[in-house]
């Protein structure tokens, strides 16, 4: 009995020391770097896999740009806008880098998304209202060749690409690109077998497989999965070829003269030369602007692989935090999962300045190859974590904002009960300044943002993946006697901050609540923007 009393007393003393430390730190807000920090920025992936192939998406996006601005979106990542092998294609089966919907090729002048004039109008309007545009650059491969060529190649083991499984033989591959609709406008480069190192189809024998073209090797500075993961799909570009390197470097400079871009997403970065990627980034920052934003898509659940890649790239870019996306999915589906470990072994935990966090994207949405289901109750918890927590650069997904449009007449409903725009606005208005985590219980965690000079109100966020709960958290003596309410309206109670600056913040079962001063800036208008 004495031992139990001693343990309880010790625990209370530890809690009192912790609360005192929190109070002392919060009393010195104006001495912290976060007090004068710039506003939070937010990125939106402005498409999902099932956007209608009606060549109208550039117009749709231009129409809703003011709504994006109103809910706190600063930059939008648009889909690959270069000509693909089909008018209905999303664009990752890329055909011509220099055709932005300008030339009649592959069955259409426009891409799935629209024509070049509409694309330019979208970007000009975005620039006028202060929204940046990130281009989706697909530089690993080419598809939809105009003609075949014959050459020698060797089949390799798909699971171990350094192992040959058949002798070299003559094959017929789709590697000839002469761009008959565009000709030599913008670039005189034509592509032949010498510009590729691998294919996956021998047209002469009508046989699939991974073939390494004789006289070429896989790049060494790529992922070592499958022995060497240079080859991904279609006709794989060989960046050891100087003519190819020069053409793609020139394209990076050219597209930024055609469009006022703020940055790029580099697709499939673990599949092509990291050395070339560094050269490409250096060229963009030398010819466009020094703060040109780059984020790479390196898909892996292993955070060490991302850290190794960042080091190899000399930290010239950010990377999508795919390990975090995997953890959000797993925890959402595991009854009683420990929320305290949600950031364990993630990029945002180890290199937050280079982590782009996300809950879902076009590859992880339902039915896709990298599907990572997040249960509906957990989706708002996940978004609250990436949007309101201080670490990382979050990216919101179009499919969660609007719903997935598997067909135009029957779109699905938005995620988070339609309240995702409230969370994006809360990021701007309240998720600022010093952060204090209360990750002290397995199934109920919380954190406080104390605000800063421009946004002094702050917030208290609490979430549960089990039953209803509550958490006592310190928001500051300056808030004593204030009435705080849940901006999501999922917990209808009122919390009164006590004279010491503490509040006891409740949360409903399997839910999240975000508490702010009821008189806080923008509080009333949040209810008016549940949908955009």
From TrEMBL:
InterPro entries, per the entry: A-amylase_thermo, GH, GH13_cat_dom, Glyco_hydro_b
Similarity section: Belongs to the glycosyl hydrolase 13 family.
MF-aspect GO terms: calcium ion binding; hydrolase activity, hydrolyzing O-glycosyl compounds
Occurrences of domain Glycosyl hydrolase family 13 catalytic (ranges): 41-427
Protein name as it appears in the record: Alpha-amylase
Organism of origin: Aspergillus ellipticus CBS 707.79
GO terms under biological process: carbohydrate metabolic process
Keywords per UniProt: Carbohydrate metabolism, Glycosidase, Hydrolase, Metal-binding
CDD domains: AmyAc_bac_fung_AmyA
Pfam families documented for this protein: Alpha-amylase (PF00128)
Cofactor(s) this protein requires: Ca(2+)
Coiled-coil regions listed: none
SUPFAM superfamilies according to UniProt: (Trans)glycosidases, Glycosyl hydrolase domain
